[in-house]
Amino acid sequence: MSFFKSSSIGSITFSLLLGVLCNVYPWGSSPWVPDFLIVILAFWVLHTPDKIHLLAAFLLGVLMDIQTSQFLGIHSITYLITAFLMLFWSRRLLNTTLLGQYFIILQVLLISHTAQILILWLLNASNDVSFSYIILPSFIEALLWPMISKFLIGQTSNFSRNHSSLN
Amino acid sequence: MFRSSPSLFNQDAPILRLVFFLLLSFILLFADLRLHATEQIRSFGQTILYPVQKILSMPSKYAEISAEYFLTRSNLKNRVSDQAQQIENLTLLANQAESLESENSNLRKLLNLQQKSSFKSLVAEIIYNPTNPVSQKVIINRGEIDGVKPGMPVAGSLGIMGQITRVFANSSEVALLEEKDFSIPVFVERSGLRGALFGVGRSEPLELRYVNNLGDLDIGDYLITSGIDGTYPPGIPVAIITKIDRASEGSGAIVSCRPFSNLNQYRHLVVLLYQPSTIAPLPTESEIVKNKSKFKKGGQ
User: Fold this and answer.
1) How would CATH label the architecture of A8-166?
2) pLDDT digit string, tens, across residues B32-54
3) How far is B193 from chain A (nearest CA, A)?
4) Architecture per CATH, B119-278
5) What are phi and psi for residue B141, nearest 5 degrees?
6) Most exposed among A72, A90, A125, B140, judged by the fewest C-beta atoms under 10 Å?
């Protein structure tokens, strides 16, 4: 795992903080607002599973629950499922093109957002399940993936080379 | 590389760790929902996040201010004259209200009725409304330091907007009227009919419940706080009736209402620091004993 040294703790922390800032920005409550942090978290879970794993997902989830003033645990469950699926499909993800990655990420996000809305629905017992809160954020976040992925790989020098040597 | 089977237990996917953290999340969820034991975690997190929220809410605020700055002169002139007129009208109303209030309090004294309690108010600014698929809440920039307490009513310039649900050091959370299961005791201004107004969900009309199917209700009636719960001061406008569906079966009419204040429009709102004085004192122990003995005697 020596080739992961290049992605320093500094850039990981910085990008995650940036994700938190993007989420804290007062966008308003609308299904069109994506969860920026989930994409950045997914990236680091995929590329540095030794540093960013389920514990980080859990803690960031609790922070986002406080930010959105929801019951504690809802975002952490979402982030945990995302992180787990990223690890579960990590070989497939690292072996495909960016387009292939896009479709896998979309699946991951759809599953974790569905879990989130399902829990909220069970807790609130309202009649209507807000499907727009599953589909819209998932698609927008999946669109963010290639950009964030390119940007963060660019941040960490000789990153992609090491990956190609792995395969 | 792909030898490992079953794949769920491969090295890449730490299923045990996932189960552990999911369990932890569910425990946290349970502690929050049923035991309300997570307030400290929440206020700690909010204290960290508050400066960030405050700074990030600035750009939109200053955009508004700069838009004001570039108003044209004629616009400004119109606005000033409008406001002067408005102030004159309001002064007249205020004077009238003052004399009415003094008259009212004198009459209440004469009739030996309880005095209405007066209260202070606190202007607060909305920092943000959190992304939340199921509920309608806003975070305001006043907290425990400013004397805000959970349960205090929050109003806009047109009427009641919601209620404080959670208080942090510098900020607090307000549940808006549309929040599911939000309830507020009201009466119909025209007929004096009492009922309770309930929130149904985001961007759904409010519902007036516990009113008679044959009650004296009409579209356009104003609903005003009755103040019988002691949480809301009496006489503040809340909503207007928009639709009445007299049920052919079932017990009550379905009455839809629209809140007076547009819940998603304003940047500022007012926290009413209302401390109800109408709560009867709890009976002391000796009184209970006395009553009991009296009851026994009566029974014999």
Assistant:
1) Orthogonal Bundle (1.10)
2) 888 877 888 888 888 888 888 88
3) 29
4) Beta Barrel (2.40)
5) -90, 25
6) A125
